[in-house]
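User: Teach me something about this protein's shape.
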Amino acid sequence: MHKKILAHLNEAILLFNNQLVLTYINTAGEILLEDSAKHLLGLNAQILFKSSDSLLSDLKQCLKNNEPLVDRELSLSYLNQSMIINFSATPLFENGQLADILVELQQIDRHIRISKEEQLLAQQNISKLLVKGLAHEIKNPLGGIRGAAQLLEFELHDEELKEYTQIIIQESDRLKSLMDKMLGPNKPSKKKSLNIHEILERVRQLVNIEANHNIKILTDYDPSIPNLKADKNQLIQAVLNIVQNAMQAMVDGGQIIMKTRIQRHLTIGRKRYKLTAKVDIIDNGPGISGELMSQIFYPMITSRAEGTGLGLSIAQSLINQHNGLIECESEPENTVFTIYLPLEAEYAQS
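Assistant: First, the predicted structure itself:
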């Protein structure tokens, strides 16, 4: 009965015997470690937590002192993943002798990430509404200015004076184009089944044409990623904006890596997905300053004098339309833009 109860808990529960051999793990534990009970049972904690010194030390201390132990914000590494967890260990006695240690692991970086993600999405929505309102307000008088300049040009006979009206018309058109970009795509998505690597390879072809010889575009693909339903042109534009942003930051050259992996059991916007395509765009440029990091997805935010600051904002908007999200982490010589795209609809969980 107790195993049925443990199996349905949301927290990872592991049971070790007095030799620190794993004898039980619930479903949440399998999900946390992304491995099956069949493979995990029988492993010694020395092997299971060999890359997590603090956690292993706590477990040995609990075994030695026969006392409960709680530790917070520990780093847990297993297979190819790492996470931050809260740890508790409780010794279980039988006939006065230590028989087992009950371990509870609670992943907290996921909660932190969800909170940051919700904040990011809320900021995006507010920003989008403000920008759309501003863009509409600017476009209306622009049409009048352009029309007045055209009428004035018909009345002028001096060709030199007509040059001024042409400047007014051209600049009005440029501002209108900028406003259209701020408003985002105005065509509905045409989603079809496609492979994410089609998108990345197309982007690689495009940027190789405009890249200087001192910028290398490398790939690290996981060919096992299944198809997703997406608008091909919109995803190309989103990824292209990110890659071009990286290229513009590396004025002295460098390399960009496009990397794909499967992300399991990811929550985006309060919806959990069994399978998500994870695309990392990694560059070894100068990095993004701390001042800009919290604002990089806002429109008109840029560190370049000639930039419009719309590329990343538009990319985030396009990925949001696919129920996905873009995140960024940056330090000098290691900036990572991560795109999360849920796979086919049947993988979504409520």
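Now, about its shape. Residues 346-350 have pLDDT under 50 and may be disordered. The chain has two domains: 2-107, 188-350. If you'd like, I can walk through any region in more detail.
User: That's plenty for now, thanks!
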